[in-house]
Amino acid sequence: MALRTFTSWLFVAVLIAALGWPEAPCAAQDAAPDSDAEIAASDSLYSMALRGVPLATALERFVAVTEASMAYDADLVRGRRSFCSARALPAPKLLRCILKDTDLDYVLSSNGTYIIIGSPKTKARYGQIAGVVVDASTGEPLPDANIILADAATGTSTNTSGLFQLSKLVEGPHEVMVSYVGYEMAVLRIEVEPGQQTKRKIELTPRPLLTEPVIVDGLQPRMPSSSLGQEAAEAGELEEPAASTGTGDIARTAGTLMGIATQSPLADLHIQGGASGEHEMVLDGVPVRNPVSVGRLISAFSPLALGRLTTHKAGYGAMKGSYLSGVVELEHDLTRRNTRWATLSADPVSTNARAQGTFEIYGRPITVMGTARVGMWDVYQDPALHALIQDWSSLDPLLARAWAYPTASSSDPTLSDVSLSSAGYNHQPAVQFSDWHTAARVELTPYRYLFVSGYHGRSAIGASLIMDSPMDESPGSVDSTQAPPIPAYDRYGWNNTTGQARLEWLIGDRTIGSVQTYASHYDARSQYRTGVSTLGPSQDSDSTSYSQGGLWRPDDRNQISELGARARLDIGISADRRIELEAGVEHLRSRFRVGNAFIPTLQHDLTATRAILSANGEWAINEQTIVETGTRLTYVHSRSTVYSEPRLAIRFDDPDTPIGDYSLRLAGGIYRQFTSQFDISRDGASAVVPTASVWLPTDHSIAPPRAYHVSAEGLWTPTDGLTINVESYAKFQPHLLAIDYPTLRTGVAIFTKDSPDQSTFISSSRGRAIGAGIRVAYENEVVNTSVSYNISQAERTFPNRFDGRRVPTPWNEPHRVDAQAELNIGAGFSLQTSWTGIWGRAWAFRKAYYDYLTGRSYSQNNTAGFNRVANVIEQPEAPGFNRPGDDVLPPFLNVDVGFGYNRTFGGVEIGALLQVSNVLDRSNVIDRSLIPRFITYTDRPRTLPGRLPTLSLTVGY
Q: Which keywords, in A-to-Z order, does the entry hold (predicted)?
């Protein structure tokens, strides 16, 4: 009995927190009202005499007399009678009198509704509401729809499959409001049966409907703080063509988000000061190891295939994964209700097509989507891309020395010959890329969905250097007809394939479950050839011809395959508490081979298995404050160790202040990474792609890298359409992993056909990243504009280099300003503009200089190519590369403008976008090369293309 009484009063305490303080017992009729609502209800006095009247009749009479609003379960009052004699009592005290001796009580909600409940002396009974929210016309599930329980001041949102659940609701009728952007709001009255789950399929009509506003005191349709700690871009934004290439580019879109940087001209992303390999990109939950195309100049995904991009930043939750900087989530698009059955787009770089349809098999609806994209290089060589590849593949004479004279001594005068400046060669770029996506959703039952998807992408890029004219002599030989040896061919290519199947369904009374299996495979290869261009007689004695000779260097190659499975539960413990649980297993195999003129060939083969258990709890302390806490446990088989990653976040929302709505989020935790990416600089003097990426699971010889995050963010909405975001973060990185270039160069490590321990070529480093940002955005029906400013400082040590000091990272952007604006002119026309400014970039020379020409004393090096280059670098006139933070690039400034048109004619949607990239025609410098001039040097900058117009066309049906 004591436990039963305690449980009853505990339930009343929860209701007090959610709905306000209840009335005092009937016996205390002379007590003062406790709430504003009761004070308001006490202004009038009523009299009533009841002798054995059915309680339902008595309550109806009470409502008729007082004109009050009341909600109760008919089963709750059935069989009960009321005995009450009252004279000149206010409404609350009159209701207490009516309920006297019935074992029932009431609470008064903040909107003035009397809710009849079981007395604290009796055990309250609960039930659940669960279901799915779909488009009424197509049956498509609607993710992230808002579910609001008006009379209980709580709510939730649907998951990616449109499923939702609300747990531990008091029995009886509840008013549920369901809303989704662009749909008519649905208001339903759902009866909650005690001890049962009430399932509903809620259909929303995709038509705007003007209604009187529905106000739920103390609760917004979606707590804005839930969007803090992440940045998102929807399908329409992902399809916007990048002005620099004229094609849709996921990476460029992500780079416009606050705290996310894309380092031009590459498509590598950096999250809040982190390296490109310190986050992971996942497509439908599957890792995509190299999410770039055209040699890391364009993102690897068709923009028509994707529905949403979400970037999780510092302080992200335990369920998102184990990565040092963050996670980039991509989702295939099966939800756009306005998507035409078929869409075709063309731009200077690619042709992109999409088809989607819904049909039934054995009464089960199936939605299928497919896209295909192919590069247009063989048909049309885009001038911007051609100019970019040509400039990027320009011959670097300093690196060419390592290959060009394999037998010359370091003092040979040919090492200062200016012919290596590439003035006598023309470039023949080559570009190939394609990708396809497919996804399908099967509605097995109204509350059970199967989702399958697949992706395959391939890319190749390179350049050949061919002599324009014969050389009459080579250095050191007046009569020779042989030109100096040159790097003649460079090619970099990769293939990426992923697939997954996920089942989601409602389990039991208060649980949503999912099971997923997936596979991912990545295979990259780079080829580099050195040779000579020779001049000799042709078969026709009256003419001459040229031939290319030389040897192929062994290919560099990297492969990584991953198989995995995971199961997840989303459990609603109560209306204000939920917990997520996930268990999974991963099996990976990585193989790579790298080598060049500066380092000996290194081969590595590793198989790794990991088991993961993660949990995250969410508790609403009150209507304004939510606490999230969780942890990840990862068992690494190679080290027989379990690693923990605890994390915590506190969110606060206040929608009713004199200065407007505002939300806050404070988060932090421990973050590790168990599969690391290493970008190894390529030695190719004409390499289009400056680095080769290698993915490695950590082996037994090194501990996984570790970082600590602290972040604070705020969102302020002073007026409709105007939002101000602020964020700050600090990442402390006591243990990072980095390639030890000096150790590789010396050849100290023993490299055999068997895999060496990773500790022989990977060393520990440390670092930190701190920064802050602010974004001001305004949007209405005519204009959409935003301006953001980010300041950051990212530093770390590099093994055996730079005297052990922490130096700025190559990707750090100390000051960055981004601005975008779009103006809707009308009649389908629009104007667009974007502006980017970056100040303070360091590492002004090619990254290979800092990686291969710094570190231990040159005399310790046994690699001939390195010694030959070092001999020249040691000259007094040559710059050093030991202080990269002092080598600062000029400011980066870029302005793009666009003029768009989009209209529908007879069911056919026509779109066109004319853009002009780099309107100011600035020569934005990416890095610099050194050109030897006998006993001195000049530098040659590599720049982005100048002013360039592009046109993109789209047709949808």
A: Cell outer membrane, Membrane, Signal, Transport
Q: What is the pTM of this model?
A: 0.75
Task: Name the pairing type of β-strands 807-808 and 815-826.
Answer: unpaired
Position 278 in a domain: no
Q: For residue range 375-405, list pLDDT tens digits in order.
A: 888 888 877 777 777 777 777 777 776 665 4
| Residues 77, 160 within the same domain | no
Indicate the residue among 206, 222, 238 that finishes a domain.
Answer: 222
Burial of 905: CB neighbours in 10 Å, binned 0-12, 13-18, 19+: exposed
What total of structural domains would you count in the chain? 3
Pair 599, 702 in one domain: yes
Distance CA 746, CA 759 (A): 15
Q: What is the pLDDT of residues 88-136, one digit of tens each?
A: 888 888 888 888 877 788 888 777 788 888 765 555 566 777 788 887 7
Look at residue 400 and tell me if it is in a domain.
Answer: yes
CATH number at residue 760: 2.40.170.20
Whether residues 60 and 130 fall in one domain = no
Distances in whole angstroms, Cα of residue 800 to Cα of each of 679, 682, 742, 762:
17, 19, 6, 11
Helix (DSSP H) and strand (DSSP E) numbers for the chain: 12, 49
Please state, in angstroms and rounded to a whole number, the distance separating the CA atoms of residues 85 and 97: 8
Distances 589 to 519, 678, 695, 699 between C-alpha atoms, Å: 12, 16, 10, 11
Q: Is residue 332 part of a domain?
A: no
8 Å CB contact between 450 and 441: yes
Give the distance from CA 792 to its chain's centroid. 20
Expressed as residue numbers, the domain containing 86 is: 2-118
